[in-house]
Design brief:
3 domains; 6-stranded antiparallel β-sheet; Phosphatase 2c, domain 1; Beta-Lactamase
């Protein structure tokens, strides 16, 4: 018989007793507020059944508990503390031996114990460490899958009862209520309360109270998740700002460098606030200049900080060695000692800014474009693997630029851009665009505009770096006479 049924039965019995005593005495059949008003106005004596009054008192206590829980949820976003306090109150108010909250892990498609309150802390810790429940498995898994609460009078007689938690802890589950925790995005978890202390099993009224409480718990979980994500996002953005400042400080102060008959210009746009692309150019003395472009595996803070170290090491080596392959060999030796999973594709050129002769060495980097007055050549020289992968010697090659020639170095972000239909631009399409506009003075700006137009409305898929080397023609070294 439900608690409502028992209440009605009790009222009828009390009515029979009171009717025999006096016509002025009646049973409480109306809301408490109405009765108090009636008594105040009519000044009549009221007698009600003691058991019924205890029921009213219990409901008032439960209402007070729910109001208190609501206030707690509004006052703190500390999930762990809040869940322990709320579930401890539920256990006390419902006079139960134990209760628990299992949160849904989407990646594992399973429930994991987040809160477990019983007679001892050791049992709670054991559940959190060792017990997970697959969706559809056991009573909790059944409730999670069907999103429907259950009141189980005899757990061990129920075929859905799993019993793994009891086996691990030695606890004996007799009667329980299991309620799904549902948020705006769907399943959050399952809350359970076990073994009422002073009765054989939980009632429908107990379910009503626990469901109401679990609605508050679901709100608390969602608030906590949102708060945690907000804090993590804010911290992440602060870290990105710091890393971005570090990264930019290691790039050339000006995106344009000129020496002799050569002008080098660059564009660098990270896909995120901090990217893994890098470039550098500088004078080496004797009319020569170094030009470097690279792409570090990974994105974000780790790539940016690692980039800072690589540029520092590279600049030191570049001013010590006169051949590009020797610089890459030594840089590779340093990088093979770095953390696993971080490597660098790169091209390093040493250009004679007077004659146009260029020595070049490459490490797993996309080919560069050699733009003459008549054609665009895809220059794919012999190269080694990305730096940091294995210890070996890198080859080198040489080219001779003529007056008006340009070299275009790029990272894969230039041709990995995707449009709204998911199609990649591709290296061939990029090369075709360059061929179409090979005589344009502002070529690298036009390439950037083309990539932005192609991927309009889409997040940038990868960092974009372009480095252009222009050779205006042979120049004379200081003190050298023409002819």
């Amino acid at each position: 018989m439900t608690s409502r049924g028992r209440d009605i039965s009790g009222r009828k019995k009390a009515l029979k007793r009171t009717e025999a005593c006096s016509p002025e005495i009646f049973i409480l059949k109306t809301p408490v507020k109405s009765v108090i008003s009636y008594v105040t106005m009519e000044k009549k004596k009221v007698q009600v059944d003691e058991e019924y009054l205890r029921g009213i008192e219990k409901k008032m206590q439960d209402l007070g508990m729910l109001i208190e829980v609501s206030a707690l949820i509004s006052s703190t976003l500390d999930f762990n503390d809040l869940m322990n306090i709320v579930m401890e109150k539920a256990k006390d108010v419902m006079d139960a031996e134990a209760c628990s909250v299992l949160l849904y892990n989407k990646e594992k498609d399973a429930l994991e114990f987040e809160v477990a309150l019983s007679m001892d802390e050791q049992t709670s810790d054991l559940l959190k460490q060792k017990v997970t429940v697959k969706l559809g498995q056991g009573i909790a898994g059944y409730v999670a899958r069907h999103l429907h609460p259950l009141v189980i009078a005899d757990a061990r007689a129920d075929e859905r009862f799993l019993g793994d938690a009891d086996k691990q802890t030695g606890f004996t589950t007799k009667s329980l209520i299991a309620v799904p925790l549902i948020g705006r995005g769907g399943l959050l978890g399952v809350a359970e309360i076990m073994n009422p202390r002073h009765k054989a099993f939980f009632s429908d009224y107990d379910l009503e109270i626990f469901q109401t409480l679990c609605g508050q718990v679901a709100i608390a979980i969602e608030n906590s998740i949102f708060h945690k994500e907000s804090i993590e996002h804010e911290r992440h953005m602060q870290e990105l700002d710091v890393a971005s400042t570090i990264q930019r400080s290691f790039l050339p102060e000006s995106p344009v460098f000129q020496q002799g008959g050569m002008v080098v210009s660059a564009v660098n746009i990270p896909a995120k606030q901090v990217g893994g692309d890098l470039y550098d150019f500088f004078g080496l003395g004797g009319g020569k200049a170094g030009v470097f472009i690279g792409d570090i595996s990974g994105k974000g803070i780790s790539a940016a900080l690692y980039m800072a170290k690589i540029i520092s090491d590279f600049r030191y080596l570049a001013h010590q060695e006169g051949s590009p392959e020797v610089v890459l060999n030594q840089l590779n030796s340093l990088m093979t000692k770095a953390p696993r999973g971080l490597f660098l594709t790169a091209i390093y050129m040493i250009a004679d800014t007077m004659s146009g002769d260029v020595a070049v060495s490459a490490a797993g980097h996309p080919p560069f474009l050699w733009i003459t007055g008549e054609e665009v050549r895809v220059t794919n020289i012999e190269a080694g693997p990305p730096l940091g992968m294995t210890d070996l010697l890198y080859p080198s090659a040489s080219i001779s630029m003529k007056q008006g020639d340009r070299l275009l170095l790029l990272t894969d972000g230039a041709f990995d851009a995707k449009n709204s239909e998911g199609r990649r631009m591709g290296f061939d399409d990029l090369a075709a665009f360059v061929r179409k506009h090979l005589h344009e003075e502002r070529l690298i700006e036009m390439i950037q505009e083309q990539i932005d137009s192609f991927s309009e409305g889409m997040d940038r898929a990868d960092d974009l770096t372009l480095v252009e080397i222009r050779f205006s023609g042979p120049a004379f070294r200081e003190g050298q006479e023409p002819g």
